Amino acid sequence: LELRERFGGVRPYDDNEFVENGDQLTISFNATIDGQPFEGSVAEGQLYFVGHNSIKQFDDNILGMQPGDSRTFEVLIPETFDIIGGKVALFNVVLHMGTKKTPANLDDDFARQCGEPSVDSLRDKLKKIAELRQKQKKLMDIRQQLSLKLLNDNQFKCPEFLVNLEAQNVAMQNSIDFNSLTNEEKQAFLE
Length: 191
What we know:
Layout: H1 2-6, E1 9-12, E2 24-32, E3 42-49, H2 56-62, E4 70-76, E5 88-102, H3 108-113, H4 119-153, H5 160-173, H6 183-190
């Protein structure tokens, strides 16, 4: 279905349809924090993809709306947002229109879009890919189980140069110059 959706199209909402995850909308909104607008708090005729927003609470509050509906709700802005993070915003949203994804028809035209001459050959190829992925997953699971068993059953000392390399890597990931640390600070990374 994912492949069919990727090559499919969109269609406008039917009369009784409503906002669901994955829909594409045209909305207008305005928002305030403590009664004051903020940067990006006003939009008219904005194209919006439900489920692709960093503010999940916003999506949760517009689910179920139908074209022409308006809704007012509060949203806690995630801490990851500069300046407004951690604050509660009051949103007024109007839904103008919505569209739903329509999967491509499962036919030879679709198969050709995917690079195969027919639906049967596409189905065979996808089956082989799925079987290969299952085998790879099974091998990875066995390797992981074997590694854990070896580690649990055998005590060995890790070579010091590997410990030092890992400590330097952890320091670098935290934007710290390992070589400029004191011996006590280096020891903290080595533990």
